[in-house]
Every structure is written in C-alpha cells, then in structure tokens.
Structure to design on (145 residues):
C-alpha cells in the first residue's frame, strides 16, 4: 500500500508570512498602505530582533517567541496593538490618540512618531522578558533534574 501524501495532489502549501503581509498591504488604499509600511519600518527599527508574523488576519511581530505587536487598518483609522500595559505606562504621552483596550488608534497615513513607537515596544519587550524569567524553573533542592 502506498503512503498517503501529507498534502493532496495539486494543493498549494500555505502562504508564507511574507506573502500574507504583502497581500494584506496590497489590499489597502495607497494612503493607508503607505502609513502601515512606515509603521512596519518603525517597528523593525525599534525592535530589530523581532520577527514578522501574521495572526488574526493582521501583520504582526514576534519577539522571543511571543507576540510583540500587531498593526492593522480599519474603516476610519489604523491601529497599533502594543498591549494594555504599554499604553498604561505611557498614557500621559498618548493624549492626542484614541486608545482602547491594548490599541493605539491613529489617522490613516499618519503613524505615531518613531520615538513613541520605540518606547511602547520597549515596555512590551520588558514585559515579555519578565514573563519569560518567571517561567524558567530552577530545580528544587534534593530533586534530580
């Protein structure tokens, strides 16, 4: 008996993350696309070790295996999703933006300034690292590992 193929004949493999992000951006109007591309560059600059991702239908970046941030376009605005804690920490600096549970909203084509994006992501990176250090287990005395 012949082994079954992992994928049916003629099926396509899932699109790569890069292809998903490219398709997402290409589907946006020019002004929106330009703003999201700028935001993506700001994120890469602020967190060069972060890896592109695509989740929940949105472009995103992972840092040390955890989601760092998402970004997306909606009907009336674009958004950066750095998480609620980052927005809480920098709340005094965000008075010119609409914020909601973990989301910073901004006009299409006008992403937040580079220094603000960098500070938001730094808070999130610190949060990811703190969570990772809490989950590392140290052997208990008298126990074999």
């Amino acid at each position: 008996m012949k082994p079954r193929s992992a994928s049916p004949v003629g099926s396509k493999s899932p699109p790569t993350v890069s292809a998903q992000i490219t398709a997402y951006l290409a589907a946006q109007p020019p002004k929106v696309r330009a703003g999201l591309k700028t935001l993506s560059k700001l994120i890469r600059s602020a967190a060069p070790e972060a890896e592109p991702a695509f989740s929940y239908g949105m472009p995103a970046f992972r840092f040390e295996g955890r989601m760092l941030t998402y970004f997306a376009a909606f009907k009336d605005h674009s958004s950066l999703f750095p998480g609620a804690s980052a927005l809480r920490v920098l709340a005094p600096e965000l008075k010119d933006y609409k914020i909601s549970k973990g989301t910073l909203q901004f006009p299409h084509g006008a992403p937040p300034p580079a220094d603000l994006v960098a500070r938001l992501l730094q808070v999130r990176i610190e949060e990811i690292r703190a969570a990772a250090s809490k989950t590392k287990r140290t052997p208990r005395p008298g126990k074999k590992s």
Summary: The mean pLDDT is 88. The helical segments are 17-26, 30-46, 84-89, 114-135. The CA atoms of residues 70 and 110 lie 16 Å apart. The radius of gyration is 19 Å.
